[in-house]
Amino acid sequence: MANGASFRQAFAPGMLLTVFGSQLALSTSVANTVPLPTKIGGVSATVNGIAAGLYYASPGQVNLQVPDAAGVGPAVVTITTTDRARRGPSRWRRRRRASSPTQREHPCLRPSAKRGDVIALYVTGTGASLQGLTVTVGGVAASVQYAGIRGGLVGVVQVNYQVPAGVAPGAQAVVVTVAGVPSPPATLTVQVV
Question: Would the CATH topology of 2-98 be identical to that of 112-191?
Answer without folding.
Answer: yes
